[in-house]
Amino acid sequence: MHIFYDLLLTILATIWDVLPIAAIIFGFQLFVLRKAMPNLKKILMGFLFVLLGLAFFLEGLEAALFPLGKLMATQLTDLDFILQGEPKSSLNWMHYKWVYLFAFAIGFATTIAEPSLLAVAIKANQVSAGSIGIWGLRIAVAIGVAIGISLGVFRIVTGTPLYWYIITGYVFVVIQTLFAPRLIIALAYDSGGVTTSTVTVPLVAALGIGLSSTVPGRSPLLDGFGLIAFASLFPIMSVMVYAQLSEWIARREKRKST
Amino acid sequence: MKSIRAILKSLLDSLRDLLPIIGVIGFFQLVVLQQPIPNFGEIATGILFVVIGLTLFVQGLNMGLFPVGESMAYEFAKKGSLFWLLVFAFSLGFGTTVAEPALIAVAKEAAHVAAVGGMIIDSEQSRLSYAFGLRITVAVSVGFAILVGVLRIIRGWPIQYLIIGGYIGVVIMTFFAPKEIIGIAYDSGGVTTSTITVPLVTALGVGLASSIKGRNPMIDGFGLIAFASLTPMIFVMAYGMVV
């Protein structure tokens, strides 16, 4: 079966990606810190697991979900599907309801499966001694990505400039920062960057390119970009909202019990 | 027996993480587009691979990436050499970004946009050098971001001032940068942080904040990724203006 041959290639590619990181880490450990790493054997095993894990993960996505997801993005943005037999002149942004729904759903679903978000959630859970739930954080981030990508799709359909949305988003983030609990701020800023990697980017990029090449008047070169920017901005807001909500609920419970 | 049960449990956890995607794609394929699912066998194998991969990754995270990031943070703090810590921070940011496949793809795309938009001569040679320059720019910007982020943890600067300062930088650059580059610049912030970099850098930040007196790992330890996704936007727009 050729999936196993592909897997081998993916493992080699992953080794190639990990090589510079491993070189930096072990180089500094040997020449600057000049100390043997504690539990070296276990750590090397861990690196091997990460390597194999990523290779399996990427190859599996490539074999199962990406082709179907990408094809779906093209089919859903196809004008014949959008218009459902209506004349082309009646086309407006409301015809794209399935595309918005798909953007929302795929944004949410891919974020839940994102390994780097899982890593940050595990760490945040450890550091906060359990007060930040792994699932709470992941769902908050996923909702942010879902809203972000749907809004980004709306932007491509309507052709409004990207920076209006992003700058408005920044203003919201700044205002929220003033009111959010101090403990969450750094984590919220981080969750903007971690959301978009292995699972989300390929599917979202396919959606952006599909849309911008079928909506009349858009060009994939100028309008195809920007969805990732939405997906990295909105989780910052949704995580701060999550923190404010959980603080508010905790305060109300406390008041009830006294 | 116990370990088999633990492995089964983590496999089930990974499967649960995947259920939303399977559900979404299944729903749109069968209900909205009303088409059958092609190559069922291949898809089932693929899903099995993804589940195994995610499980292995989480195992490796706790055995390898987290402990390495943390133990290096402790040792650097103990050694007390700020210079070498900053050199390490920069190299980690630069080294993990420059070979990042997502960045290579974006840089190629950007060179295409620049050539079509008339910003550079449309030849193979100029495209390649444009893409390469962009990659180096982004990698330097991520290295710089981790360096500043580590310095912030050590000094205990509040993160919001730095981030808001960065936002102001992005807004100002947006008004001066060529229009064609803005979308790519904004996206480049999101693609730079890979699946291996994120846990490593997070563990480094949290480790540093917990080994320096007076720092809170929650308030000061996080935030490195935030810098790494902000500076590329500014640097890429600057690149678009200069080149």
Low-confidence stretches of chain B: none
* Rg of chain B (CA only): 22 Å
Largest protein-protein interface: A-B, 105 and 106 residues
Radius of gyration of chain A, in Å, reads: 22 Å
Instruction: Give the overall shape of chain B.
Output: flat
For the residues shown, what is the average pLDDT of chain B?
A: 88
Q: Structural class from helices and strands of chain A?
A: mainly alpha
In helices, the fraction of residues of chain A equals over 70%
Q: DSSP helix count of chain B? A: 10
> What composes the largest sheet of chain A?
none
Strand content range of chain B: under 5%
Determine the N-to-C terminus distance of chain A: 65 Å
Please state roughly what percent of the residues of chain A sit in beta strands, choosing from under 5%, 5-15%, 15-25%, 25-35%, 35-45% or over 45%: under 5%
Major sheet attributes of chain B: none
Provide an overview of this structure.
The complex is a heterodimer of chains A (258) and B (243). By secondary structure, chain A is mostly helical. Chain A is 81% helix and 0% strand. Chain A is globular, with a radius of gyration of 22 Å. In chain B, 85% of the residues lie in helices and 0% in strands. In chain B, α4 (101-116) packs across α5. In chain B, 52% of the residues are buried. The chains are: A mainly alpha (258), B mainly alpha (243). Chains A and B meet through α1, α2, α4, α5 and α7 of A and α1, α2, α3, α4 and α6 of B.
Describe how the helices and strands are arranged.
The complex is a heterodimer of chains A (258) and B (243).
Chain A: H1 2-31, H2 40-77, H3 79-83, H4 97-112, H5 115-127, H6 134-158, H7 162-179, H8 182-194, H9 200-214, H10 220-223, H11 227-257
Helix pairs in contact in A: 1-2, 2-9, 4-6, 4-9, 5-6, 6-9, 6-11, 7-11, 8-11
Chain B: H1 2-32, H2 40-79, H3 82-98, H4 101-116, H5 124-155, H6 159-176, H7 179-191, H8 197-211, H9 217-221, H10 224-242
Helix pairs in contact in B: 1-2, 2-8, 3-5, 4-5, 4-7, 5-8, 5-10, 6-10, 7-10
